């Protein structure tokens, strides 16, 4: 596996891969890799001939009081994991390579980015859309792979790709990969490592309470009491606050009170020990 830090070298390497006829899969990440990321790489290898992974802790998607400085950085360890999985190329630019002096462009996706995490993290999805758009233009992948764990992010990226015609000429195809979970059900996240042992144990209440809420919603269609019980269960388990616990249409991500017959998703963001955890699960109509 080749690790590249500059755009010139990336373009030369990608051109070489492409001229050998390889179908290229892109796995964008911010590093601190875990089994969830490695699953994306494996999925990309199943569908493509060569995988380009990126590691870039993107400053523009972090708010002023968020964890940009604390976000774990472990490039050598991550590179070894990607190489062991069979990645062809690791794109690991510095911030000034991605955002050189004079950078003034912002990609902003309305509607789907406005509620849920967008409401409590202003500017977050502009940062995500802008950097992912750049990654697509830099790597020109045939397919790109993202975790469903960040369900709203996936919806924002799909909307951006559709609206900016990113499906052609590069034949992008954006693939959502199901969330990978720990043995107790907690969704894998690079931020789980911030949790103390006690908070980590209590955090397992999140997927359990979500499953319980889904069972209640599927039984009676009405989300309101189930969401109230879910919030109560999280606060009783030691979560400090619940940013949102919402039943939403799975495509528009608009909140709904009842199942409507089209596909729905339960999405939750809650804080424990100062760490904000998110999770989402499908709800059968
Ligand atoms: O999901 C992530 O790790 C990031 O938001 C992404 C898609 C790599 C953009 O920085």
What integer is the average pLDDT? 96
Helix coverage percent of residues? 25-40%
Low-pLDDT runs of 5+ residues are: none
Q: Report the bound ligands by name, code or SMILES.
A: pantoate
Give the CATH architecture of the largest domain.
3-Layer(aba) Sandwich
* Structural class by SSE content: alpha/beta
Over all CA atoms, what is the radius of gyration?
A: 19 Å
What fraction strand? 15-25%
Number of domains: 2
CATH topology of the largest domain: Rossmann fold
Number of helices: 10
> Secondary-structure element order, as H and E?
EHEHEHEHHHEHEHHHEEE
Would you write up a description of this structure?
The chain has 285 residues and is of the alpha/beta class. The protein folds into 2 domains: 2-177, Rossmann fold; 190-279, Pantoate-beta-alanine ligase, C-terminal domain (Pantoate--beta-alanine Ligase, Chain: A,domain 2), CATH 3.30.1300.10. The chain is built from 10 helices and 9 strands. The strands form 2 sheets. It has a 6-stranded parallel sheet with strand order 1-4-3-2-5-6, sandwiched between helices. Helix 6 (124-139) crosses helix 7 (151-163) and helix 9 (205-220) packs antiparallel against helix 10. The protein is globular, with a radius of gyration of 19 Å. The termini are far apart. Pantoate (PAF) binds at residues 28-30, 58, 61, 128, 131-132, 150, 153.
């Amino acid at each position: 596996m080749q690790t590249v830090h500059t755009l010139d070298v990336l373009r030369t390497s990608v051109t070489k891969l492409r001229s050998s006829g390889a179908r290229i899969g892109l796995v964008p990440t911010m590093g601190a890799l875990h089994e969830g990321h490695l699953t994306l790489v494996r999925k990309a290898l199943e569908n493509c001939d060569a995988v380009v992974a990126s590691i870039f802790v993107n400053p523009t998607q972090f708010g002023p009081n968020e964890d940009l400085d604390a976000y774990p950085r472990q490039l050598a360890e991550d590179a070894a994991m990607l190489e062991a999985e069979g990645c062809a190329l690791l794109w690991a630019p510095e911030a000034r390579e991605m955002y050189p002096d004079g950078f003034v462009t912002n990609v902003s996706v309305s509607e789907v980015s406005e509620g849920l995490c967008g409401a409590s993290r202003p500017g977050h999805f502009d940062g995500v859309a802008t950097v992912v758009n750049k990654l697509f233009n830099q790597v020109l992948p045939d397919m790109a792979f993202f975790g469903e764990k960040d369900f709203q992010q996936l919806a924002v990226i799909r909307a951006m790709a559709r609206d900016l015609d990113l499906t052609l000429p590069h034949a992008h195809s954006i693939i959502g990969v199901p969330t990978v979970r720990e043995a107790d059900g907690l969704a894998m996240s690079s931020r789980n490592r911030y949790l103390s042992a006690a908070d980590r144990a209590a955090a397992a209440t999140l997927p359990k309470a979500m499953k319980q809420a889904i069972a209640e919603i599927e039984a009676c269609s009405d989300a309101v009491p189930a969401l109230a019980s879910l919030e109560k269960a999280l606060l009783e388990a030691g979560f400090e606050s619940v940013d949102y616990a919402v039943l939403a249409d799975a495509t528009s991500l608009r909140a709904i009170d009842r199942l409507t017959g089209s596909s729905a998703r339960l999405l939750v963001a809650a804080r424990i020990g100062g760490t904000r955890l998110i999770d989402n699960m499908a709800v059968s109509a």
